[in-house]
Design goal:
This protein is of the alpha/beta class. The chain is built from 18 helices and seven strands.
């Protein structure tokens, strides 16, 4: 038997085997071309930046093409010429990825948006350039398509309305932060000049004009006048963005109605949750839901040792930042959460931060069930809910928005 194998592996026979394998490979490519209408699959990795992008095309025969383009009309036309309906594309998620995907998705077979946090292979490479990053993306993509295994799960691409809401909420949060900074500065100037007013007295609309008349000195008066002008302009713009969010959010009136049945959730918070999750059906269970909203801890498990780590940072943070401002409402108006809170405080009073995040996680778990089942909260205050929705209904009529 061994002697026979030895004869088969002589130099001429080895060459013959190589020829046969090469013919099989060529036949596979021919068969693939027939299936795809004479075209070979192309795997494209794109390293996208704010003003340019680098591409790596990997063809079925193993050939590679690396080329860079600018993000302008002329350069994009040249790039589009290289795309076919049998091209698979992978690009990392970044600020301008969604808009870029919209430009190319109709020109290719499929587009995968890779989660930056989960894509570790590129960051582990010692030599890191745009071309190498693009090549790694193309290689991962080819492995994923040819093996039919989900190595990198594509980032969810929300509809345009959700993208618009997310964009508005980013500006909303920014202006809110600036308003807080301006108020803190005004408060500090009054304290420095021996006027320790409370924040409520300084910034209430009724007392604001009287506060402005107080003389503190030339330099302090100039600052107070300037800061109040900036504050009032920011407040005006903040209200305009608030109204824009509510107008666009009316598309999700049914979900807003359900969410506001929980005491502590305002119209804006409800729309923020919708903007973060887009649609509840894409989450298989409440654990995935709470993890995506950054309220679930990480788990580091090895052998028999299990270590609970900090909350994951892979999801959206808007909802948890707004929810954490109303935790007392959720705790005091929910018997189950209040009982859990009191028990935790007795045992782990030094871990207030973890307990607060635990409340957020429990609230999100209840929100998941409400949206999944399409039901109001079981501790709903009917009067409080009606008040919120009646105010929103009046706003809808004033904005002349027609719900479909």
């Amino acid at each position: 038997m061994d002697h026979t194998i030895g004869k088969l592996l002589t130099i001429p026979n080895r060459r013959l085997i190589h020829i046969i394998l090469y013919d099989i490979y060529n036949f596979g490519n021919i068969f693939l071309k027939i299936i795809l209408g004479g075209k070979i699959m192309i795997f494209l990795g794109i390293d996208l930046h704010s003003n340019c992008f680098t591409c790596c095309f990997i063809y079925d025969d193993g050939k590679k093409l690396k080329v860079a383009f600018q993000l302008n009309a002329e350069s994009l036309l040249d790039f589009f010429k290289l795309l076919t309906l049998n091209t698979y594309v992978m690009v990392e998620a970044s600020t301008n990825t969604f808009k870029f995907v919209e430009l190319i998705k109709a020109k290719v077979k499929e587009v995968y948006v890779a989660n930056t946090y989960k894509l570790k292979l590129i960051s582990l490479v010692k030599k890191k350039t745009d071309k190498i990053d693009a090549e790694k993306l193309a290689i991962i993509l080819k492995m994923q398509i040819t093996s039919n295994e989900e190595l990198i799960k594509s980032v969810y691409l929300p509809e345009q309305t959700v993208q618009d809401l997310r964009s508005l909420f980013t500006t909303y949060s920014l202006i809110k932060k600036q308003i807080t900074q301006i108020k803190n500065r005004i408060h500090a100037i009054f304290k420095q000049n021996l006027h320790p007013f409370t924040r409520e007295k300084i910034f209430s609309i009724s007392a604001r004009n009287e506060i402005k008349k107080i003389e503190l000195g030339e330099v302090a008066d100039y600052q107070i006048k300037y800061l109040f002008e900036v504050l009032e302009n920011l407040e005006k713009k903040f209200n305009e963005i608030d109204e824009s969010i509510k107008v666009i959010g009316q598309k999700y009136y049914k979900e807003i109605d359900i969410l506001t049945s929980m005491k502590g959730i305002s119209i804006i918070t409800a729309i923020a949750i919708i903007a973060d999750i887009a649609e509840v059906k894409r989450f298989p269970n409440s654990k995935h839901f709470t993890s995506y909203l950054r309220s679930a801890p990480g788990v580091d498990s090895s052998n028999e040792e299990v270590r609970i780590t900090k909350t994951t940072k892979h999801g959206r943070k808007l909802s948890v930042s707004l929810l954490s401002q109303s935790l007392n409402h959720f705790r005091d108006n929910n018997i189950k959460i209040k009982k859990w809170y009191n028990k935790k405080v007795e045992v782990e009073s030094h871990k207030r931060g973890k307990i607060r995040m635990g409340i957020c996680r429990k609230v999100f778990a209840e929100i998941y069930q409400m949206l999944k089942k399409g039901e109001y909260h079981y501790f709903m205050d009917a009067e409080n809910h009606s008040k919120k929705m009646n105010e929103y209904d009046l706003f809808c009529k004033r904005s002349e928005y027609v719900m479909t």
